[in-house]
Amino acid sequence: MDIAFKDHLEKLLLKDTRLVDDQGELKGNVVKKFANELDETIIGYLLEDEKTRNHFFLKVKDVYVFKTNDFIFFLEQNKLDNSFTKYANTIGLTLNGKFLKDNTDIVLDFPYKDCILEGGQSTEEGLDSYYEFDTELSADDKKKGYEPNQYNEKQAKRKEIFFNNIIARDEIDRLLEPKAFVNIKSFSSIESVKPKKFTRNKENIITDNLIIKGNNLLTLSSLVLQFKGRVRFIYIDPPYNTGSDSFIYNDNFNHSSWLTFMLNRLELASKLLMSDGVIVVQCSFHQFAYLKVLMCGLFKNHLCDFNIQVRHPDRALTGDKEYNDIIEYSLVFSNDLSRKMPFIEVAKDVNEYTLDIEFNKNATPEFIDCGDKKVEVYHPSMYKVVKKPANKSLYKKITVRGSIREKNSSGRFFVKHLEPLKYPSETLFKVPDMGDDAENWRYFYSAPEGNKNGGYFQGMPTSSDITKKKYPNFFNFEKEYNNVSDQGGVEFRNGKKPEELLKFFIEIFTNKNDIVLDYHTGSGTTPAVAMKMGRQFIGCEQMDNQIDLSIKRLCNVINGDKTGVSGATGWQGGGSFIYLELAKNNGKAKELIEQCKSFDALVKLFDTLYSKYFLHYNIRIKDFKETIIKEDQFKALSLNKQKEMFCRMLDNNQLYVNRDEMEDKQFGISKEDIALTTDFYQIKD
Asked: Would the N or C end of the chain have less CB density within 10 A of its end CB?
């Protein structure tokens, strides 16, 4: 086919903005997708044009039939793609005999269980540079200093290809194997030391606070061996996939990519949760509906969605907003089908009244002989608790303080006799000679149904000290969001959550010493609040700058940070945490590629990449070294494009060192880190 017709077809297809990427070039895989779907718009363009009508349609009487296979064959043979894609294909990135760029199986659903999206986030901006020849310039282009009739360097969001074919099972298994740890440090102040081992409880579970640097998918898979079923509460604030955050994927596939990214991690997170644990995921309206459907399929119990006001309704609109989105959503799920949302408990003013017990006239108690005492036993139907004016109470007001086993020596004797017996919840026990009322009686009752502490309790058999009410699904945290900038002594623009929000959730769903996990740690808000509230935490983060912020913030907390919820929790300082990194393998190679300042430096690096690191098995090494790398067209690509091409040649299943291979000398892991990794996983000789 002549070049003129190819150019003619390309210009025709470029009329459809759905087929054009941020660089103004055709999305070849999208064209094929729409062609297979018999998209009316594309077929209309082709049918209205005489040249394309003659090539791609068969006339049967007065009807034109679109020759789909002929059209797609033409696209594949003539490569209506840019030079970068040409070389990405030429190098040999294929799967099942197809170049990745040519894959058209892009859907919103998840047809294959084995679909894995590693989703590495190496940069905040996610931008790539490219060159484009401009004949005419828009007003915006002129403002940017572009010149007409020449190549101008531009930037666009990185395009990552998402494809849902089944990945080989052994490749996924290798990808998700537990990883080795390096650069392990313990912080109990601004200074760090090398720990000798991890601290553990009686059940042999690590009790140290942990901050782990590395891809969170692989970090979660490494945590499962040690913390499966041990985490009480998970909070994550993932990238929202708004088109302007750090999750930069091809816009045409953003729902599919982002949801797969979330799916892979949530599946592992679910394994870490305790049977009655809770996970809260924060998101914006962009993905709320999709994420809720996804999570309903992963977790057994949807507790609620909190609507969190984060901005004032009257704020000035930004240029890309059609309306003020002032709400974010917190989706709350658990795997415990019996779990219910707790109540808000508000203390009553006990000075206004006291409580009295009124027995039914015909109530005949049972009697229990407890040594020299006879305890009267009243079932719930035999009595009721009533309010009385404070000055007319017959009985002294008693505050419930917990199990009498722990609080009262006489009570221990009393409970010893009761433990073998079975009584309904809120059975009342009237015990003599304990001195609470005029007749020297004291009252105990069996714990209400669902009380997690169990046992017997002192006081009136009711929640007399509190008023219970249900949580609303709307809370206004606008003020807290506006005052978040100085919290923790670190700056994290447009990403920091207020400590008050995390305190709100941690108070509802956890108790002291419970494990709290955040695998999108960011600036460290969740670990900071967990530490101030006496909870154990695990934080995971991949970004260099955000890990640095988390470490700095937690050191500030240890040293007595006064911002955020410090006042409300009475925080005075103290505590510690251990920092770990996933040991890099091909991850180091990517860093070396990024450090190259020229094409010549990349060429020089290639032999190191080939001999020391793991290249994808489909890469045609000889063709690349002897032919492609010497072509003028390849050399003309921008340095960033050349770097991306080199990175694509690396096997992403080999980014980190697997635990079982950590003693291989080629990885250069220290004896101390090998010993600590062994201790982390409790590997036996």
From this structure: C
Least confident piece of the model among 322-331, 413-422, 491-500, 628-637:
413-422
Q: Which residues, listed in sequence order, are joined to residue 154 by a DSSP beta bridge?
A: 130
Residues 45 and 24 in one domain: yes
Lowest mean pLDDT among 102-116, 177-191, 265-279: 102-116
Is-contact 104 37, C-beta < 8 A?
no
Helices (H) and strands (E) in the chain, counts: 24, 26
Residue 680 lies in a domain: no
**Whether residue 111 is found in the same domain as residue 238:** no
- The 3-state DSSP class for residue 322 equals coil
Report the number of distinct structural domains present in the chain. 4
Which of 549, 582, 615 is the C-terminal boundary of a domain?
582
Q: Which of 419, 416, 413, 432 is nearest to 373 (CA)?
A: 432
Residue 327's SS3 state is strand
Q: Are 314 and 182 in a shared domain?
A: yes
Residue 513 lies in a domain: yes
Nearest to 80 by CA among 157, 171, 1: 1
Q: Read off the pLDDT of residues 334-358 as tens digits, 9 standing for 90 and up.
A: 999 999 998 887 766 555 555 667 8
Q: What's the angle, vertex CA 638, arms to CA 633 and CA 644, rounded to 5?
A: 100
CATH of the domain at 477: 3.40.50.150
Q: What is the pLDDT of residues 101-159, one digit of tens each?
A: 444 433 333 333 334 555 554 443 444 444 556 677 777 777 777 777 765 666 654 44
Instruction: Give ∠ CA 158-159-162 in degrees, rounded to 5.
Output: 135
Q: For residue 660, is it within any domain?
A: no
DSSP character string of 255-278: HHHHHHHHHHHHHHHHHHEEEEEE
pTM for the model stands at 0.64
Do 564 and 521 have their domain in common?
Answer: yes
State how far the Cα of 120 lies from the Cα of 261, in Å rounded to an integer: 10
CA distance 425 to 428: 9
Mean pLDDT of 646-675: 87
Q: Could you tell me which residues come within 8 angstroms of residue 321 by beta carbon, excluding any fewer than 6 positions away?
A: none
d(CA 185, CA 188): 10
Domain boundary among 533, 562, 582: 582
Closest C-alpha to 667, from 594, 618, 628, 613: 613
Task: Evaluate if residue 403 carries a pLDDT over 50.
Answer: no
Q: Which residues of 355-366 are buried (b: 16+ CB within 10 A; e: fewer)?
A: bbbeeeeeeebe
Sign of torsion over alpha carbons 553, 554, 560, 563: positive
Q: What is the mean pLDDT of residues 20-44?
A: 80
CB-facing half-sphere around the CA of 383: CA atoms within 13 A: 24
Whether 521 and 552 have beta carbons less than 8 Å apart is answered as no
User: Residue 236's domain spans which residues?
Assistant: 176-342+471-582
Residue with tokens 């990403």: 495
How far is residue 510's CA from residue 522's CA, in Å, rounded to a whole number?
A: 22
Residue 540: Cβ-neighbour burial (10 angstroms; 0-12, 13-18, 19+): buried
Q: Are residues 248 and 237 in the same domain?
A: yes
Mean pLDDT of the chain: 78
Tell me the C-alpha distance between 325 and 341, whole Å. Answer: 27
Q: Are residues 305 and 328 in the same domain?
A: yes
Does 327 lie in the same domain as 232?
yes
Query: Within a domain: residue 663?
Result: no
Helix (H, G, I), strand (E, B) or coil at 320: coil
Q: Which residue has the tokens 């704020």?
A: 315
Taken as a whole, the chain contains a residue count of 685
500, 541: one domain: yes
Query: Within 10 A of 665 (CB to CB), how many other CB atoms are there?
Result: 6
